[in-house]
Amino acid sequence: LADVGLSFTRIDGSMRAPDRIEAMKQFNSDAFGSPQFILCSLLAAGTGINLTRGNHTFLMDLWWNKAVEDQAMDRVHRIGQTRDVRIVKFVMDNSIEERVIKMQDAKAALGKGSMEKLSPEEMRQARISALRDLFQMNSLDSSKAS
């Protein structure tokens, strides 16, 4: 970003809490020269921060637990947000990220199934199936590699 003249700050797991707060304040400032972008790791930016100055969120690393992603997206969907918010997930075809999304969908279906009173055996089979799908790496279309 700096190479193309765009200012930014960051929040990641290596930072102390006061430094994270300062990065958030810098980003949310309307002052001339304040950062145009903030780069955040999902876990470090998942709770306790408000990024309503931003209205575009780009998720580059998906998480097994969709609630972690939802929390990170909620940093810009806060009280005080006056603009439309756009969320973009970057996912490559035939990748582990694509499998993560399928697993998230399967977990959501399991949650719905528990509300619909699936038997414990049906729930167990659904979980096993989701894990099999995730770890079946040979189905990532290895025929294209030749």
TrEMBL record:
Ranges where the Helicase C-terminal domain occurs: 1-119
Keyword ATP-binding: yes
Native source species: Ditylum brightwellii
GO molecular function, one term: hydrolase activity
InterPro entries: Helicase_C-like (IPR001650), P-loop_NTPase (IPR027417), SNF2/RAD54-like_C (IPR049730), SNF2_RAD54_helicase_TF (IPR050628)
Pfam families hit by this protein: Helicase_C (PF00271)
Protein name: Helicase C-terminal domain-containing protein
BP GO annotations: DNA repair
Any one Gene Ontology cellular component term annotated for this protein: nucleus
